[in-house]
Design brief:
This protein is of the alpha/beta class and 275 residues long. Helix content is 35%, strand content 20%. It has one domain (9-153, 175-230): Aldolase class I (TIM Barrel, Alpha-Beta Barrel). The strands form 2 sheets. Strands 1, 2, 3, 4, 5, 6, 8, 9 and 10 form a 9-stranded mixed β-sheet that branches. A two-stranded antiparallel ribbon has the order 7-11. Helix 1 (44-55) packs parallel to helix 2 (76-86). The structure holds iron/sulfur cluster (2 copies).
Length: 275
C-alpha cells in the first residue's frame, strides 16, 4: 500500500480504537492480549481528543470500535455518539464477540454502519441471539460480518527474534496494513505495541512504535504517519511477534495457569530487547 495523502489526510483502510483491554472470553492467541491484561476502560474525554487529533491527518475507510470486548464499556453509547459526530472515516464498525449484544442501546445501534461478530466454537452464540442481532441490524441497514473464528494466528513468540527475522516478519505482515490503531494519543500501524508496553519494564521503548498525534503541525504529522506506514525497518514489537503469516492453531479458551504462563513469558521477552 502506498498511502496517498489527499486533502492533508493519509488514506488508509481502517483505524481501530480499542476502548477496553479486558474481555469476557479468554481466547488463546488473542491479538489484543486481553486474557493477560488488567481491566482498562477508555476515558471518553481522551477518546474524543484522540479522534479529533487523528482525523486531521488520517482518513480511514472505516473506524473500528474494538476491545477487548467493547460491550464491557459502561459508556459505550457515549463513545459511539462521539465517533458518529466526529466522522473520522466514512463508516463506523463495532467489533464484538456478540455475547452482550442484547445490551446495545437503540442509540448505539443507530451510530454504527457495520457490525463484525466473531463466532467461536466455544462458547457458541445462542441461535436466538444471532436472530435478534440479524433483525436489529437489518432494520437499520447495518452490514453484519459473521466471522467464524475456529483458528487463531499464533502471534506470540516464545524466543526473541533476531533482527533479520524481525525484518522479514515485518515485511510479510498484513496486520500492519489492516489494523492501524490509536490509543492514548499515539497512532500505531498495528495493535500490538499499545499492549506490549503495558508489560515492559521499559514501556516507553514500545511506545516509540507509535506516533504522537497531539501536535500542532498537521501537515508534518500526516507526512510522519505516512512515513511510518511505509517504513521497512521493523517495530520493537516485531521482535516479540510472529506476524500475520504465522501458523494457525485451533481456537481454545485459556485456563488461569496458562494465562499466568503467557504473561510471564511476555514480561521476560520484553526485558531481553535492547533499544
Ligand atoms: S473474544 Fe476477542 S478480544 Fe476477547 S479474548 Fe477472544 S479474541 Fe480476545
Ligand atoms: S508487531 Fe510487527 S509483526 Fe507483529 S503484527 Fe505488528 S507489525 Fe506485524
Amino acid at each position: 500500500m502506498n498511502y496517498p495523502i489527499v486533502d492533508g489526510r493519509v488514506q488508509t483502510r481502517a483505524l481501530e480504537y480499542h476502548i477496553t483491554d479486558h474481555c469476557n472470553l479468554r481466547c488463546d492467541h488473542c491479538c489484543s492480549f486481553s486474557p493477560i491484561l488488567k481491566k482498562w476502560l477508555a476515558d471518553p474525554v481522551a477518546f474524543r481528543e484522540d479522534l479529533i487529533a487523528v482525523r486531521r491527518v488520517v482518513r480511514p475507510e472505516f473506524l473500528k470500535i474494538v476491545g477487548g470486548e467493547p460491550l464491557l464499556h459502561p459508556a459505550l453509547e457515549e463513545l459511539l455518539v462521539t465517533a458518529h459526530e466526529l466522522q473520522v472515516g466514512a463508516r463506523i464498525q463495532l467489533t464484538t464477540n456478540g455475547i452482550l449484544l442484547r445490551q446495545l442501546t437503540p442509540r448505539s445501534w443507530d451510530c454504527i454502519q457495520m457490525l463484525s461478530v466473531s463466532l467461536y466454537p466455544e462458547p457458541a452464540l445462542p441461535k436466538d441471539l444471532i436472530r435478534y442481532v440479524a433483525r436489529e441490524a437489518a432494520r437499520r441497514n447495518i452490514e453484519v460480518s459473521w466471522k467464524m473464528q475456529d483458528k487463531f494466528t499464533c502471534l506470540d513468540r516464545t524466543v526473541l527474534a533476531t533482527r533479520d527475522e524481525a525484518r522479514d516478519t515485518f515485511a510479510d505482515c498484513w496486520i500492519r496494513h489492516r489494523c492501524n490503531s490509536i490509543k492514548n494519543g499515539r497512532f500505531y500501524s498495528c495493535t500490538r505495541p499499545q499492549y506490549i508496553q503495558k508489560f515492559a519494564a521499559d514501556g516507553p521503548l514500545f511506545a516509540e512504535d507509535g506516533i504522537p498525534v497531539h501536535v500542532e503541525d498537521a501537515a508534518a504529522l500526516a507526512a510522519t504517519i505516512r512515513e511510518h506506514l511505509t517504513q521497512t525497518e521493523p517495530l520493537h514489537s516485531c521482535f516479540l511477534c510472529n506476524g500475520g503469516q504465522a501458523p494457525l492453531d485451533t481456537h481454545r479458551q485459556l485456563n488461569p495457569q496458562a494465562i499466568r504462563a503467557k504473561r510471564e513469558q511476555l514480561v521476560t521477552l520484553t526485558t531481553q530487547i535492547t533499544p
